[in-house]
Amino acid sequence: MHIDPNKMVTVKIDGIPVTVPSGTTIMEAAKKIGIKIPSLCHHPDLTVRAFCRICVVEDTWSRRLKTACNNIVDECGDIFTNTEGVRRARRTILELLLANHPQDCLHCERNRKCELQTLAEEFGIRKNAFDPVYRPVPKDLSNPAMVRDMSKCIRCGRCVDACQAVQEVNAIGYSGRSTGFKITTAFEKPLSESPCVYCGQCIAACPVGALYEKDDTQKVWDALSNKDLHVVVQTAPAVRVAIGEEFGMEKGAIATGKMVAALRRLGFDKVFDTNFSADLTIVEEGNELLSRLKSGKNLPMITSCSPGWINYVEKKYPDLLDLVSSCKSPQQMFGAVAKTYYADKMEIPREKMFVVSIMPCVAKKYEAQRPEMNSSGYQDVDVVLTTRELAKMIRLAGIQFGALPEEEFDSPLGLASGAGAIFGTSGGVMEAAVRTVYEIVTGKEPQSLDFNELRGHEGIKEASLDLDGTTVKVAVANGLSNAKILMDKVRAGEADYQFIEIMCCPGGCVGGGGQPFRTTAAIRSNRMTGLYKVDKDSKIRQSHKNPEILALYDEFLGEPNGHLAHELLHTHYTDRSH
User: What are phi and psi of 92, to 5 degrees?
Assistant: First the structure.
């Protein structure tokens, strides 16, 4: 039927009139008047598929059950969401799902955060009406970042949509028909042999425990208990605007001080800030860009701080690897500096240093274990935990997060600029780099440190920068599907840019695969706002003006892009397309 979005439609839902634009789904209309219709396959940021059928309602027009997530109010009479028939149908669907699901909630990574478990609780299901029919499937443990436990898959399709439509990685898809229908990789290979980049967006989309990050919390507990080790921790910018959500704070609330206090109470010897090494990355990357602009070679330069993006370019665009910045990510730069400069400064044997990272990202686990990330003579970063894993440790330790005081990071690797903070948002790396590059070239501060044209949720953002008479064109890709668009243009010689930022996850690190579950576009926006506030409130807002960065070069590294800086802070990438 033809839908006119300017036309308004009035329907009654459970006897309550509601007026909505033509084309509005029943689920959206019901939400407007405070009626929640349950669902498992529906996610506000993903394609509507109507696979789970739990959102069924009745209407007087068709006089049958219909799904609320994909049927629109235009085709309905009065709608009923809470009749005996609706409740019975939903319960039966849930019981059928549970019969094909291992009900081992106590051993599940998603216990108390599982959408299926939540619905079963809401429907009061204590004993299933159907005999169990599920078949155990061996877990895929083939990689250092993620676990696939397809015994728990409910075939809702959300992970496939995240992988195929949102990221366009196509590591997983559908296979089989009827009772043989399942979600798997091509030829049912392990993830380590698939195009998977370990971004974790499938984990974020999954409503149950079929996909999750590898739990490395015990490694950290063991290190904290080892008196021979000096255990330090770094926290990524996007963690501070998400960790509070795990403890009931508002979405996007800035919880930096409480997070630092919690980490100290967990027993870390020092609590440092990845924002510090984000500033270091900007100084190195900015000078690398200027060198390339001067030589005219290997342009456009493409950022390298997102490990999911690095995995993607190695697998999909190995012919463009020369364009990728040789800079390590802030996580890896921090590890290299902690195990050299900091260890020597504190007179701690380098082999006694143990570096833990708290990241919003699943791919960071893989990045830390890459063989080239050991320029200090030791693995730069020993263990990576996601935001969710940190929350798990805080709860296990009995720390009341909301009651904690505000505490400051330690020095000398804890002072950071506002530019380092916005690394966690799409466009933030570019904006931070522009603030520094502009001043290095022109000798003047930009008229404004806020480059609003680089901010926001758009898939691709473009801007032009006047560097003392030389125009530099830049672009930002938000998520891998948009990275593909830019990379295809670069490969075809159609991209008139000198600098490109690519962040693997939608929204940047604020939307990382290791962030609290049920992240949506609205929540990513709140986290972005939080990071821009951190930046706005910072006394220092340009990376090259961070005094601890200046001291690092003066006391240890020498000059940006110098010999020692290249040895410790830069790396290389490999063709992994085969």
Answer: -65, -40
Model pLDDT for residues 115-135, shown as the tens digit of each residue:
999 999 999 998 888 988 888
Picking from 60, 71, 63, 67, the residue whose alpha carbon sits closest to that of residue 25 is: 71
Residues 6+ apart with CB under 8 A from 450: none
Indicate if 367 belongs to the active site.
Answer: yes
Instruction: Look up the pTM and report it.
Output: 0.95
The count of residues in the chain is 578
Is the bond leading into 207 cis (omega within 30 degrees of zero)? no
Classified by CATH at the fold level, domain 8-82 comes out as Ubiquitin-like (UB roll) (3.10.20)
Q: 199 an active-site residue?
A: no
User: Is 4 a residue whose pLDDT tops 80?
Assistant: no
Say which CATH topology domain 218-569 has: Rossmann fold (3.40.50)
Q: What is the maximum alpha-carbon separation in the chain?
A: 78
Among residues 39, 194, 277, 325, the one annotated as catalytic is 325
Catalytic site residue 305?
yes
Only one residue has tokens 């020092």, namely 270
Q: Tell me the two tokens of residue 447.
A: 């008229």
Active site residue 163: no
Cis before residue 21, ω within 30 degrees of 0?
no
Respond yes or no: is residue 288 known to be catalytic.
Answer: yes
Single out the catalytic residue among 246, 285, 389, 431.
285
Residue 297 annotated to the active site: no
347 carries an active-site annotation: no
pLDDT tens digits for range 14-62? 999 999 999 999 999 999 999 999 999 999 999 998 999 999 999 988 8
